[in-house]
Amino acid sequence: MKKNDVAFLVYKPLKQRRKNNSFDGNDNIGALVIIDALNCGGIDVGFCSPETAHNFRIVLVSLTSTYDVIAFYKSVAIMPQWQKSKRAFKVVAGGFGMQNPITIRNYIDYAVFGRAHDFICKIIDLLLGGGCVQHESVMCLPDIHNVKIAQAPLYENKIHFKGGVWREAFTGCPRKCKFCYFTWSRKSTQNSCDYSQSILTDGKSPELTWDQMMLIEKKAGRIRSAIDGFSERLRFAYGKKISNTDIINGIEHLGSFGGNATVLTAYNISNMPRENESDRLELYETIARAKPKTRVILVLQSTPFRPSLATPMQHCEVSLYPATSSLSASVIFDSPKLRAMHSFSNESPYSQLETVIIERATEATDKLFYAICFSPRLKSLSSKEAISVIKKNFDLTQYLRRYDPEEKHPAWFLNGYISRDKIINISKKMELKMAAPTVTLQNDEVE
Ligand code: SF4
């Protein structure tokens, strides 16, 4: 049977969001852009499963987040036809989750880093013609070598999908919060970002920066925004320029329009390096000082800190405890006009650890990663028990420890659009701020 040329792999996500692994929805908009770019270049793209991959010459894999690395590995790692020695097709993988490919290096031939819509056709043409790929943003696995995260202009074409029609409005973010992979890996092409594109939020509440939220002029039922740090000290040290007064003003602004309650989901980062109990109390006390005129319900959705790669915080230590999940559903403040509570679904330390292991993986991680994906015992345990079992059997130091900014990092090969030397300098300055008892915006210089 003659093989078809190219297909995207449909594999089972860790959490089923849609049928067809989200290719019909907006969760995988990047893959839809790649399909459109290939179609425009005259290359048809089908879909395959792990079992039918051998019917195609090239199989594309979309990794939308670090969790997809686990999902992909679970789907293919024990299948005979996916083993390097027997594989009858080339695998090309990319997406936002393509950051450290070491744990999946034996199941991928080419790892593509960054925005690839303007060179993906060349790569596929080359492979279909029997050639080998050499490109500064492509890693030829299983060798691990330096790569540069590709930047690309806005994608001009409209993308039609089940939820509607989408057109790219911005890339990157001009703000440069020091923990944020998005801003350090995607060069910003504009001065502000329109995070409120409702087509991407699936008709749910708009997602706005805190200062964009202050520009709302009428009652909004539901709003999502981010504060990313329990205290002013932490936020300023890590580049999030939101003061305690800004938080109070934001809550009061949402509660200034009359009508029914406004629900504000505020995304937060917990277990930041150097965070302590007084940082947490500072936020709770700040929230309690807000006096909205009409009812506001604030849901604090805290995600435990990960030292994202290629950011000024990639070398920072990781704290699994106190468990962010233990805060879930607890009430922070309650009055007739303001109810503040922790989200029902904060992430567990085990889930935090899984992603940190992938992002800081080296070849020495293989056995641990296999256990995380396939051990029935680990699956049956609570987060705390599973971490304790892992700690008894594996040394977690390389995943949890602080690295010196100048030291070789497990993901040494990943380079953003800002030079490594400059990132190291920013990291060193940030460390000085972190050590200070208070940080003000005056001494938080803008890089
Ligand atoms: S965390 Fe900061 S840098 Fe990242 S997208 Fe949000 S505002 Fe931009």
Write up what this structure looks like.
It contains 14 helices and 15 strands. The protein is α/β, with parallel strands linked by helices and 447 residues long. The chain folds into 2 domains: 6-148, Cobalamin-binding domain (Rossmann fold, 3-Layer(aba) Sandwich); 169-400, no CATH class. A 6-stranded mixed beta sheet has the order 2-1-3-4-5-6, covered by helices on one side. α9 crosses α12. The radius of gyration is 23 Å and the shape is globular. Residues 173, 175-177, 180, 182-183, 209, 228 line the site of iron/sulfur cluster.
Mean pLDDT: 92
The end-to-end span amounts to 58 Å
- List the strand order in the largest sheet: 2-1-3-4-5-6
> What's the overall geometry?
globular
Percentage of residues in DSSP E strands = 15-25%
What's the arrangement of secondary structure elements?
Blueprint: E1 4-9, H1 29-40, E2 46-48, E3 56-62, H2 66-76, E4 90-94, E5 110-112, H3 120-128, E6 138-140, E7 147-148, E8 159-161, E9 164-166, H4 181-185, H5 210-213, E10 222-226, H6 232-237, H7 244-254, E11 262-270, H8 277-289, E12 296-304, E13 331-334, E14 338-342, H9 349-359, H10 366-374, H11 376-380, H12 383-393, H13 397-400, E15 414-415, H14 420-435
Helix pairs in contact: 7-8, 9-12
Bound molecules: iron/sulfur cluster (SF4).
